[in-house]
Amino acid sequence: MSTPTATFKTLDDLESDQRVLVRLDLNSPIEDGEPQDNRRFERHAETVRELADAGHRVVLLAHQGRPGRDDFVSLAGHADILASHVGRDVGFVADTYGDDAIDAIEALEPGEILLLENTRMCDDELPEEDPEVKAETEFVQSLALHFDAYVNDAYSAAHRSHASLVGFPQVLPAYAGRVMQTEYEANTAIAEKEFDGQVTMAVGGTKATDVIDVMNNLGDKVDDFLLGGIAGELFLRAAGHPVGFDLDPEQDLYDTQWEQNHELVEEMLAERGEQITLATDLAYEAEGERAEVDVDEIEEKDVSFLDVGTDTAEGYADVVRDSEAVFVKGALGVFEDERFSVGTVTVLEAIAETDCFSVVGGGDTSRAIGMYGMDEADFDHVSIAGGAYIRALTGQPLAGVEALKEQ
């Protein structure tokens, strides 16, 4: 198989002794006003450590939450978490491009690291606008004067056209950080690599439109789509089974999606039926335990289905073992509940023990790897991106990546 051609400059191209502005994505769950450690800190720490060890003066930008929401807080706590992963002190200033920030930036010595305040506390950061517009903002124009280079490591936010993501590449030499580089290469691999053997994609999650878009974009690259989750149940409904609708009118998981997409789902089954594998059994809760039923035996839906069945999971695992490449987008069930983790975990374990090229991503799916005792090293890439991963799979451009490509 071939490797995607580099489309942007990376840290390997960065000259020595630079004052570098680095965009990270440290957006985290907030509990009692404090950020919680997560895999993003660990991943981004690699880029930050490499830059600091090389003697650059490293200044970091990141966002947290959105204005008006409970998770819209300062980044002061984020600096401490990041420092624990980098193995160096990470200074913090409660300012982004005012006098306090500029003074702190100018005072940096080689190898020192400084985190600026939440970018979304700047009026210029939002909303999404063209890069040329963002480049003219006071935020970008004022801050860029004090830097030699810009590094974007925030792949998981790269689908946003915000000032800190697309404005600075217009006015500074711009480079991809290690997270940006590895995420881009892995998440575009399904479209850009050439595989000699079978290519399989396990597709789950909650949105039928995501599944349809992925199939439309990658139908010529993928030999077998293994379906699960809410999207998989909607496909079962299109195949004539009495599932894929809401039992509780207050819980709109299926019906609106069906009304909006059933013709597209039916067309997809008609056009790509040989590439689509649907669940043959489903799991549900009965008296507090996991119970299963064959799809062909369902006469009417009177329970909520929370996972693909064991037979389906084992069948999917067999397909994985015969594959040269496997990509995962979305969970096959409610894996956070161990009773309904069988589908997701069985497929992930099969990937881990198979000598195939593998990429796992899509929302929180990758969390199942650590949650159920698997080793990330057994996968070629575990993405920390959600929306950006979906856009990559569906062929949509990412504004932050396009800004780097234009260098």
What does this protein structure show overall?
The chain has 407 residues and is α/β, with parallel strands linked by helices. It has two domains: 11-184 and 399-405, Phosphoglycerate kinase, N-terminal domain (Rossmann fold), CATH 3.40.50.1260; 188-374, Phosphoglycerate kinase, N-terminal domain (Rossmann fold, 3-Layer(aba) Sandwich), CATH 3.40.50.1260. It has 16 helices and 17 strands. The strands form four sheets. It has a six-stranded parallel sheet with strand order 5-6-4-1-7-8. The chain is elongated, with a radius of gyration of 23 Å. The relative contact order is 0.13. The model is unreliable at 1-5 (pLDDT under 50).
Structural features:
407 residues, alpha/beta, Rossmann fold, 2 domains, six-stranded parallel β-sheet, 16% strand, disordered N terminus
